[in-house]
Specification:
The protein has one helix and twelve strands. It has a six-stranded antiparallel barrel with strand order 1-8-11-10-9-12. A four-stranded antiparallel sheet has the order 2-7-5-4, with no helix packed on it. The longest helix has 45 residues. The protein is rod-shaped, with a radius of gyration of 48 Å.
């Protein structure tokens, strides 16, 4: 009896083996892709956590209440005498000597504010030779724009700070005494007119003529 081989079965087995190998390769590729995606996701999560730790957003709570809004209006001026007297030469001549100096107290008459001549000067009759502050009363004059005049009316209380005194140690209160009825052009070339406002301090203790004062008044609104 002759032996023979059934060659018709060989191709079928070979095709089955090929399909099995392709399936295994595909599964391995899918597993590798999933593993890579997992690693990338883990790295991204770690990076996000580090960024969150470095850049933490914080919030601070504030309580809000209703009230009034304050706005300080301030203007500056110099202390000057309320009353002054000018002395003139009774006749023409030459000054031999002077017996007073600027700033000198003259008994109860006041303080010598200025002397306009020296020993040896020639003067004409009626020419001014000295000015006297007649009493201790003082005032500050400042220029206020017309838009702020409602806040600086006669009788209004104001604060006074003398800015060249160390640490702002010298302050005073005062009141508006007078507001000029005629305006002037503003120094900053504004179309708005300014008005001369006279402030009288409540006390002159520690104050000297010529001191620069900042006059302020608190303006409030809702």
């Amino acid at each position: 009896m002759e032996a023979y081989t059934d060659v018709s079965m060989i191709p079928e087995k070979t095709e089955t083996n090929k399909k099995s190998r392709r399936r295994r390769r595909l599964i391995r590729r899918l597993v590798c892709i999933l593993l890579i995606l997992f690693l990338l996701g883990g790295a991204a999560w770690i990076a996000v956590r580090r960024l969150q730790a470095e850049y933490t957003v914080t919030y601070q709570a504030y309580s809000v209440t209703t009230g009034t809004i304050s706005n300080a209006l301030s203007f500056s001026g110099s202390l000057e005498a309320v009353s002054s007297k000018t002395y003139t030469a009774p006749a023409a001549g030459t000054v031999r000597s002077l017996y007073v100096t600027r700033g000198q107290d003259v008994q109860e008459d006041g303080v010598i504010a200025s002397v306009s001549l020296n020993a040896g000067s020639t003067v004409e009759s009626g020419s001014a030779v000295a000015e006297l502050y007649a009493d201790s009363r003082m005032r500050v004059e400042c220029m206020v724009p017309e838009s702020e005049l409602d806040n600086f009316q006669p009788g209004d209380a104001v604060n006074m700070e003398f800015i060249y005194i160390e640490d702002g140690a010298l302050t005073a209160t005062g009141r508006v005494e007078k507001v000029s009825r005629v305006g002037s052009e503003s120094a900053d070339e504004s179309e708005e007119s300014v008005y001369r406002v006279q402030i009288v301090p409540d006390t002159t203790d520690g104050l000297l003529y010529g001191m620069t004062a900042v006059i302020s008044r608190i303006q409030t609104g809702s």
